[in-house]
Amino acid sequence: MIYFKSMSYQVLYRKYRPQTFSEVLGQERIVATLQGALLQKRVGHAYLLCGPRGTGKTTIARLVAKALNCQSPKINEKEKIFEPCNNCISCDAINKGSDLDLIEIDAASNRGIDEIRQLKEVIRFSPANSRFKVFIIDEVHMLTLPAFNALLKTLEEPPAHAIFILATTDPEKIPPTILSRVQRFNFKKLPQVTIFNKLKEISKEEKINIEDGALDILAQAADGCMRDGQSLLTQFILSGDLHISEEDAMSVLGRVSFVRLEEFFDLVAQKNLAGIFKFLEKEEGEGMNLIGFLQASIFYWRYILLSHIDEKLLLQDGHLTQEQIKKISEQKKLISKDEAFKGVEEFSSALVSAKNSPLPRIPLELAILKVIE
Predict the structure, then answer these.
(1) In terms of DSSP bridges, do strands 183-186 and 74-76 run parallel, antiparallel, or are they unpaired?
(2) Most buried in the list 29, 90, 119, 325, measured by CB within 10 Å?
(3) Within a 13 Å sphere around the CA of 329, how many CA atoms are in the beta-carbon half?
(4) Chain centroid to CA 105: how far?
(5) Angstrom distance (rounded) from CA 320 to CA 318
(6) CATH 1.10.8.60 applies to domain 192-253
(7) Domain 258-372, CATH
(8) Which ranges of 157-272 does DSSP label H, i.e. alpha helix?
(9) CB 361 within 8 A of CB 290
(10) What Cα–Cα distance (Å) separates residue 251 from each residue in 143, 199, 237, 257?
(11) pTM of the model
């Protein structure tokens, strides 16, 4: 009989959740503002964190809670740094998820007025062990209107010990009366290159043998969501593969790596129709999703167009490495600005047609012919 020491596995997005503000990626302006408020002891009583899923809203909410109640924060006023120590009783309790003064509520499943009334009862009591009692309400837009009205009264006259941090992916559904009583922060999707670099760092730490092409596909599939990227990497790890190749990632996710896109656009630049059709045949045979390929190609056409306008725009875009920018700059010498503009138009049109076609390759091939000939 075989005995397993442990069947548990900590998923990567939990294991590598940032424990300090400095570890948060892609939301530098928000982090700087919150650290400034902590340094000046001017923390508001209510915040609203808005943005796509997996961009760090709940993580930053917990960091604020940890920083507020940290007994020995690391402070550097000159460099405007305020970090929780991660060693005191309060920080340790939050890290372990056992802190009585940090109350997290999922509004998607606790959306009624009764739940908010219960919350108001809890708010009245002083913190058990900390300076502040912090309430994080996730997906707050899911609350019912009566629940919002009940919450409004609390936000209007909050106890001095209570801090509210609301998080949402859909701020448009939040009543204006609530919006007017919170400090709002808008989170943005993370650049693909940021996700790629983090996944590469995690892979090295976890001793995972994974090709850069595969990491590129994972970062692309994450679509600006770090958590999704880490979840996809976890999926591949749990599959038991000792080596994760670009072909493996493409087969599972149906995506195409940036290297393959470069190869495709080399053929486009050369106007090598035979090579292009051979490329598509090979990639589709290996599991490439044509809809995903069209979407990625539209972005690539856009990169070439931006390169013609001003190469600095590619740096500002934040999705490309220096090597990728260099490659695009070389390709633009063979692909004119007008051709790039036409490429964006024709491939965008082909994407719409392909989504409604039983043979998505036909609109793609027609778009290629229109651009090249």
Answers:
(1) unpaired
(2) 90
(3) 13
(4) 22
(5) 6
(6) yes
(7) 1.20.272.10
(8) 176-179, 192-205, 212-222, 226-238, 246-253, 258-269
(9) yes
(10) 40, 19, 15, 12
(11) 0.83
